Amino acid sequence: METCRRESSPSIFTAGEYRDWLTRAPSTSAIYERLRRGRGFRHVQPLPRIAHSVESLLDSLQQERQHGLYPANVPVRRSLLRPKTEELTYTSHINYPRKFGFHRTVPFPSPTKHSDEKLHLLTLEPEEFYKYRPQRESKMMPRSLDTFSGMLRVQLLTGRGLRPTGQFDHFRDLYCVIECDHVHKARTAVRTGEHSFDWDEIFELDLVENQELSFLIYSWDPQNRHKLCYKGTIHLNMHKEGPAHSLALKLEPRGTLYLKLQFTHLRQILERIPAPTSSGVFGVDLETIVARENSGLGVPLILKRCIDEVESRGLTTVGIYRLCGSAVRKEMLRDAFERNAWLVDLTEEHVHDINVVTNILKDYLRELPEPLFTKSLFDMLLDGISVCLPDDPEGNVNLMFNILDCLPKVNRCAVLCLMDHLKRVVSHSDRNKMTSQNLAVCFGPVVMCHVLPKERSVELGKFIDVFRYLLNIWPAHRGL
């Protein structure tokens, strides 16, 4: 089976390669500096540096309200639903009290003193983490490693002892890139610090016959190239001993990365267990959702709205549908869809990272009680591809569409909607780097595979190959 793997990551990347990422997750320093320059912060003296992160700003506001900094009747919104007009009007004229004799301003993102433990976001018990030191690579090692397919939940806690190699008289901005077999899967926000960097972010990575998990920590600079500072690699073979691990990963050339891993096998993910009730969205069959929503679209709202949002601002994003967004943000978005799919706000203002939207779409398709391409139809596609002629592309397309006509109406409408969209994604592959092969790896098992409880192994290659074939022959401008 063809795999979408890259060469080992170089030690230096150009800023252009991460431009899309940086616009979605800028430096916390840049965020606060921009806010301070806005209205109301021009002549305010900064407070002492304290630790804050992009992901925890709302949590910090809630905590400060509990300590009396903000009045109790000021709402701190966490919902992704569209705010009411009167609520926006009310919150736009807030006068914060001055209880401590100084002006309240936006805090700096990092501590002034590394030794001040009160300013750390995270408190760790190092003895609870297994000290993991990567084995030295050898020519025989790749052959001896097993491959793993499923879902890997990665909680990246903190990096400690990340001392600079040169002499620095200021704080640094660092971010971490997570790779599976040298393919980018996720990227943290940028954190500012001296020796300790508290990320505390969670990602749920799709594994498709992967062997290694790598953590690459780069220095962030808006003007210069982003230089690789630290690196550590974990062999996924450890999950043969158990699904959950708390690790203190030794980095090169120095430092330790604290993280937690939770592996879920593909058999569990693709069992297609229906939701206990049909009142929600996830785990509910297509026909029930379409009939209940009665939108006139012929497809579930979550499918149409996620696709529309990706096409409005994500078609040229590098690694779209392969990269993973914040699992915390994804869970919030999921809850919003479960409550009311009509009111969910997917705009960039509320869901800054488009990868969170793509993750929600894949989760929804993965949790359908029956695959979007039903099992009987998948068998028909396999038979049809075996008789396709290489010199008759028009006949092959007609044959595939005739087979798709055998799908239930709601499945057929959803398949046409999804495939038209992914064909448009492929048309921008020169910029987003997502070819038909890469998208087939992301979507083939999700929309075609149904694992029975007694199945001990799953052959993903056939699902990827069939999906890639369909995407390759799919017309770019299909008549609707």
Automatic annotation (TrEMBL):
User: Coiled-coil segments, which residues?
Assistant: none
Kindly give the CDD domains that the UniProt entry links to this protein: C2 (cd00030)
UniProt key word Transcription: no
Q: Which InterPro entries match?
A: C2_dom, C2_domain_sf, Rho-GAP_regulator, Rho_GTPase_activation_prot, RhoGAP_dom, SYDE1/2_C2
Q: Using the record's annotation, list all stretches that form the C2 domain.
A: 130-249
List the keywords (alphabetical): GTPase activation
The gene that this protein is the product of is LOC106461181
Pfam families this protein is in?
C2_SYDE (PF25336), RhoGAP (PF00620)
Organism encoding this protein: Limulus polyphemus
- Rho-GAP domain location: 284-478
Q: Which domain of life is it from?
A: Eukaryota
Query: What is the name listed in the Swiss-Prot or TrEMBL entry for this protein?
Result: Rho GTPase-activating protein 100F-like
- Does the record's keyword annotation contain ATP-binding? no
